[in-house]
Amino acid sequence: MSATRPLPISLYDQLIALPEALVGEIIGGELHTQPRPAGPHASASSVLGMNIGFAFHRGRGGPGGWWIIDEPEIHFVRDTEVLVPDIAGWRRERMPKIPQDQRFEVVPDWVCEVVSPTTQKKDRVIKRAVYAQHDVPHLWLVDPLARILETYLLEGGRWTVAGLYKDDDAVSAAPFDQITLALNDLWTEA
């Protein structure tokens, strides 16, 4: 009688088994984990998501036509290339319905990463390259400690700086340039 070996646990099975205190992503065939965001990070992400979502998610006082989702699990390649941006947005004409499970398999039209000292390299270099590879047209990077918003547009497979904003700037930036955001609202020391 031969002994059966247990099947290896897939990276995705490892990702979904992570404790709730960790955020997991699969990037380039590796499982990346990090703790949940600190206060300034979580606050900036929440306020930005609410401000954009209020205008664009249902069109209350704005143009509508978008799904704005906090921390979606985006499957660029099902279960093998899985990123979790802080906020992402999809035009409803491209993704008419929200998926019934946690897997978002339609490439977003916009992603936003709120960078921190521990996630900065991954957000600015590794994840940015994956977003470009999969043709995400708009990327925003928010640094709540430095009080900076960077906006990027994908052109010919490369990121170009669309705008750099700081402190208490009033921002109208693509793809949400139909509204004006007060950056000062994002910073916890405001």
- Overall residue-averaged pLDDT value: 92
Computed CA radius of gyration, to the nearest angstrom: 18 Å
Number of domains: 1
Strand arrangement across the biggest beta sheet: 3-6-8-9-10-11
Number of extended strands: 13
CATH topology: tt1808, chain A
Helix-and-strand structural type: alpha+beta
Helical proportion, percent range: 10-25%
Total helices: the number is 3
Net shape: globular
Describe the sheet with the most strands: 6 strands, mixed
The low-confidence runs, each spanning 5 or more residues with pLDDT under 50, are: none
Query: CATH class, please?
Result: Alpha Beta
Taken in chain order, the helices and strands follow as: HEEHEEEEEEHEEEEE
CATH architecture: Alpha-Beta Complex
Roughly how many Å apart are the termini? 70 Å
State which percent range the strand residues make up. 25-35%
CATH superfamily: tt1808, chain A
